[in-house]
Amino acid sequence: MTEALFREDATLASCDAQVVALDALGLQLDRTVFYPQGGGQAGDRGRLVLADGSVLEIADTRKGETPGAILHVPAPGQEALLARVAPGQRVQATIDMQRRQRHMRFHTATHLLCALVPHPVDGCSITADYARLDFHMNEPLDKLVLGEGLARLVAEAHPVRHRWISEAELDANPQLVRSMSVQPPRGQGRVRVLEIDGVDLQPCGGTHVANTAEIGAVVVTKIEKKSAMTRRVVLGFAPAG
Ligand SMILES: [Zn+2]
Fold first, then answer.
1. How far is the centre of ligand 1, averaged over its atoms, from the C-alpha of 107 (Å)?
2. What's the pLDDT tens digit per position in 83-109?
3. Contacting residues for 223 by C-beta, under 8 A, at least 6 apart
4. d(CA 179, CA 204)
5. Closest CA to 30 of 40, 21, 22, 20
6. Rounded to the nearest whole angstrom, what is the distance from the C-alpha of residue 82 to the centroid of ligand 1?
7. Can you give the pLDDT of all 241 residues of the chain as single tens digits?
8. Is the dihedral of CA 164, 170, 123, 211 positive or negative?
9. What distance in angstroms lies between residue 177's CA and the mean position of ligand 1's atoms?
């Protein structure tokens, strides 16, 4: 089990931690700011600074096999350095915050899209360069209308916050679950929900900005008909200037 600091504060770029385990798949810490790939959102990259000052580059973050375990996946070619890492050692873990910021902005934008398109979601991918959301629907979508809707919700500067609800509360409100492809994690008694004031409320474990204004200028780059019952919406950041 790794304490997931990003679940309470997505703005944390760095933390001190202790190495818990190390194997061919990656390095596990007792606590981390690194978000593991999941819920459609890409895993974080960054670096671990060891006690002697040497720097281990982390290329990706994944969920481990045991529940709650988070694996920091080293970039290739660091075998000599990895051989010196052992459980119990202290490290400083720091993510590539510029890249994560893009994930947070896109991720929050996909929640806005959910509010604009009232259909179930059956696929989602959030990267630093684009976000795409697949809606289970057969009606056509209008690129211009969606773009204007997103711009309006960004400009309205809605606060974004997470809170925890009980599994019983979620069971009593099944309409909260918008995604057909990602089910909220069960078995811990509580479920994290993401609320954008007056706009969207749904279970989500990802990282988000604190206000829709922080999303900035996003554009709908593409709308595709992926199948008879799937419409894909792709978002990008508007070119600067
Ligand atoms: Zn989310």
1. 6
2. 999 999 999 999 999 999 999 999 999
3. 141, 143, 146, 231, 232, 233, 234
4. 10
5. 20
6. 34
7. 899 999 999 999 999 999 999 998 999 999 999 999 999 999 999 999 999 999 999 999 999 998 889 999 999 999 999 999 999 999 999 999 999 999 999 999 999 999 999 999 999 999 999 999 999 999 999 999 999 999 999 999 999 999 999 999 888 888 888 787 777 777 678 899 999 999 999 999 999 999 999 999 999 999 999 999 999 999 999 887 5
8. negative
9. 12
- Ligand 1 centroid from CA 76, angstroms: 30
In single-letter form, the type of residue at position 184 comes to P
Q: What is the pTM of this model?
A: 0.94
Instruction: State the distance from the centre of ligand 1 to the C-alpha of 183, rounded, in angstroms.
Output: 12
The alpha carbon of 205 and the centre of ligand 1 are apart by a number of angstroms equal to 6
Amino acid making up residue 228:
A
CB 47 within 8 A of CB 40: no
Q: How far is the CA of 224 from the centre of ligand 1 (A)?
A: 22
Looking at beta carbons, which pairs linking 233-236 to residues 24 or more positions away fall under 8 Å?
Answer: 233/113, 233/117, 233/132, 233/133, 233/134, 233/135, 233/141, 233/146, 234/130, 234/131, 234/132, 235/106, 235/109, 235/110, 235/113, 235/130, 235/131, 235/132, 235/133, 235/150, 236/129, 236/130
Q: Which residues pair with residue 194 across a beta bridge? A: 162, 202
In angstroms, the CA 102 to CA 107 distance is 8
The greatest distance separating any two alpha carbons of the chain, rounded to the nearest whole angstrom, comes to: 59
